[in-house]
Structure formats: structure tokens, C-alpha cells
Specification:
41% of the residues lie in helices and 16% in strands. By secondary structure, it is an alpha/beta fold.
């Protein structure tokens, strides 16, 4: 058989992953929320939803996060305030402030910016925030309702990832998803949203889920990720997920964000848990860092605040009627 002429050989160049633009999707969601809030206030004769942030100490990153959240609130028509408290505040004093916020009918959403100083029990504080105003979704009652696939305020980062997947039209039904990281704020609730029955109240994603963590042997981690249709990583370990760990065409969602020193530029930069430049050569979809999951977390905080405001308004109306 004579060889095929080179000019007759069609070479198919590998395509890089489609970038999931979290910044753009979050912008769209904020626009939708702005209109929904405006219509709700007009049609239901309601005041604007109100969000109160509690910031303890002078952590620069926390201050930036809260500032960005308050900016997003203003953009969608949610009023807000920040209670800046000294890092020396006692746990009892902080609980007293939260009691006032829980009982204030003019406050719809409460967020306590984490981390808190070491002398304050974070779990106790998160549980003390009224579950009706717990827009971070960290109260144990809200987490319990999520685990039972019931309507609740869902942690913002997993909810944002769900929205990214949904709006990118990525199929999850019956697919294999691997979640790397088992934190109570991202990994665990993400697992619940991925695997639960989409017919129920949380509108979950019906995937088959494997969760990996710090004690998963590296060889097993690689094998499990290689089998996955969807890989979601939230470990805080820069570059943990490599190109040879990803199945061609898989979806890769990178929650990690770490500031590292770039030897090429001599400056610091933000990176994720995924070796982005190489993984995007084999993945089908991928989120960048920054500009992927981060903006969605803030957008979902705004959505949760609006949801909480509507439910609290309905509750007040019911009490008035009765």
C-alpha cells in the first residue's frame, strides 16, 4: 500500500478548554437581581433588603472582602452596613451584638466575616446567627436542611458553582464528579448539591460523587480525578491538580486562591489549586483564577439576602394578619 500524501492528511489540533467566565456570569446575575429587587419593592410595597456585615479585627483581606460585598449590595439595590469591631472583643460581647441583629426587623441578612480571632469559637458564632438571616448558609440548621435536600439558605460558594455549571450548560445528571477538599463551607455542601435529587427543593445535580481530602493517597487522587467528568477543587494548595490528572473534555472548577511570588516578574500573583495553563489544554471547561468562582460567591450572597428578605417579609405579614 502506497503511503498517503502529506497534503491529504487532515491534522486536528487539540482545542483548549472553554473558559467559564465567572465575572461575566456574576455580572448577569447582579443585573437580574437588581431588576427583581426593584420590582419586589414596587409591587409588594417593601423597603429595600438590608444586609449587615460583622467584621472583627483588622485583617486586610477580610476588609477587602467585606468592602466588595457592600459594593455589590449597593449595585443590586440592597442597603448595607458594616459593624467594625476590635479584635479584642469578647465572645460574649459579640453574641450580644448578634442578638440585637437577630431581633432587628430592619435587618434581613447577617454575615460574620471569617476568620475570627482565635479566642472566639467560630462554630458557636455561626450557629448563633438566626437561620432566617444566615445569608452565608453556615448555621447548622441550614446545613442540616441542605443535607436533607430541603429548601434553605445554601452556602454561597457551592451555590455559585452550581450556577456556573447550570449556566454553562454542563451536564451533571448521572455524571461522575470528584470534589477535592472537605471543608464545611465548600467541600461538604458542594458534595451535597452535586449528588442530591434534582427533583427536590434544592434543585441539586444528580451526579455520582467522590470526595477526596488531605489523607487521600496521591496515586488515588490522580486516578479518581482522571475518571471524573467534573472536578471541583478547594484545598488552598497551588497547582495541586495537574494536566495528567484530568480526563480529556472534563469540567474543572477551581475554588482555590493563593497569593504567590512570581519569579519571572518579581511580583506576587493570585493562583488557584489547578495548574491552569496546562490543564486547560485537556479540559473541556475550566474556571480561571481570579475571575471564576470568586465573583459568583458574592453574587450568591446577594441572592441569599434577597431570598431572606422576601421570606422575612412574608413572615411579618402573616403575623400581622393573624
Amino acid at each position: 500500500m502506497s503511503p498517503i500524501p502529506q497534503e491529504n492528511i487532515i491534522r486536528v489540533e487539540p482545542q483548549e478548554a472553554k473558559i467559564i467566565d465567572g465575572k461575566k456570569i456574576a455580572e448577569d446575575i447582579r443585573g437580574e437581581l437588581r431588576q427583581q429587587v426593584k420590582e419586589w419593592m414596587k409591587n409588594e410595597n417593601q423597603r429595600a433588603p438590608h444586609l449587615t456585615a460583622v467584621l472583627v479585627g483588622d485583617n486586610a483581606a477580610s476588609q477587602t472582602y467585606v468592602k466588595n460585598k457592600m459594593k455589590a449590595a449597593a449595585e443590586v439595590g440592597i442597603t448595607s452596613e458594616t459593624k467594625q469591631l476590635p479584635k479584642t472583643i469578647s465572645e460574649i460581647e459579640l453574641l450580644s451584638i448578634l442578638t440585637d441583629l437577630n431581633n432587628d426587623d430592619n435587618v434581613d441578612g447577617i454575615l460574620v466575616q471569617l476568620p475570627l480571632p482565635d479566642h472566639i469559637n467560630e462554630r458557636k458564632i455561626c450557629n448563633f446567627v438566626s437561620c432566617d438571616k444566615d445569608v452565608d448558609g453556615f448555621n447548622e440548621k441550614n446545613i442540616g436542611r441542605l443535607c436533607l435536600d430541603m429548601n434553605t439558605l445554601i452556602p454561597c460558594t457551592p451555590l455559585g458553582i452550581k450556577e456556573l455549571i447550570k449556566r454553562s450548560e454542563i451536564e451533571t445528571f448521572g455524571k461522575h464528579a470528584v470534589v477535592v477538599g472537605r471543608s464545611k463551607t465548600v467541600g461538604m455542601p458542594m458534595m451535597m448539591l452535586l449528588h442530591a435529587d434534582g427533583r427536590h427543593e434544592t434543585g441539586a445535580m444528580d451526579a455520582t460523587v467522590t470526595i477526596c481530602h488531605r489523607f487521600t493517597p496521591p496515586s488515588d487522587l490522580k486516578q479518581l480525578c482522571k475518571m471524573a467528568d467534573i472536578v471541583i477543587v478547594a484545598t488552598g494548595i497551588p497547582g495541586l491538580i495537574k494536566e495528567d490528572m484530568i480526563k480529556p473534555g472534563a469540567t474543572v472548577i477551581d475554588v482555590g486562591i493563593t497569593r504567590v511570588f512570581d519569579e519571572k516578574t518579581g511580583k506576587s500573583k493570585l493562583v488557584g489549586d489547578v495548574d491552569y495553563e496546562n490543564v486547560k489544554k485537556v479540559a473541556g471547561f475550566i474556571t480561571p483564577v481570579p475571575g471564576g468562582v470568586g465573583p459568583m460567591t458574592v453574587a450568591m450572597l446577594m441572592r441569599n439576602t434577597f431570598v431572606a428578605a422576601k421570606k422575612l417579609a412574608e413572615s411579618r405579614n402573616d403575623k400581622f394578619i393573624n
